[in-house]
């Protein structure tokens, strides 16, 4: 990865991440992206929450190393 191995490619402390949280598996149903307002639960960019529909995942907050999902 051209020298980025120590900062991208994993979800762990010290790594950069852009993450989309979905309520369905897009590998099983790609149409989840047709209706993002229904299926996207949250979006993180550079480790900060940009959008969230979860009360426990506040927008504009920085997430610690671990995010617990039930």
From TrEMBL:
Domain of life: Eukaryota
Listed Gene3D superfamilies: Urease, subunit C, domain 1
Gene Ontology molecular function terms on file: hydrolase activity, acting on carbon-nitrogen (but not peptide) bonds
Signal peptide from the UniProt entry: none
Coiled-coil annotated residue ranges, if any: none
UniProt-recorded name of the protein: Amidohydrolase-related domain-containing protein
Organism: Penicillium argentinense
């Amino acid at each position: 990865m051209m020298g980025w191995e120590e900062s991208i490619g994993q979800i762990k402390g010290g790594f950069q991440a852009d993450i989309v949280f979905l309520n369905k598996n897009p590998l099983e149903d790609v149409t989840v992206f047709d209706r993002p307002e229904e299926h996207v639960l949250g979006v993180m960019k550079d480790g900060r929450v940009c959008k969230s529909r979860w009360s426990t995942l506040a927008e504009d907050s920085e997430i610690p190393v671990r995010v617990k999902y039930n």
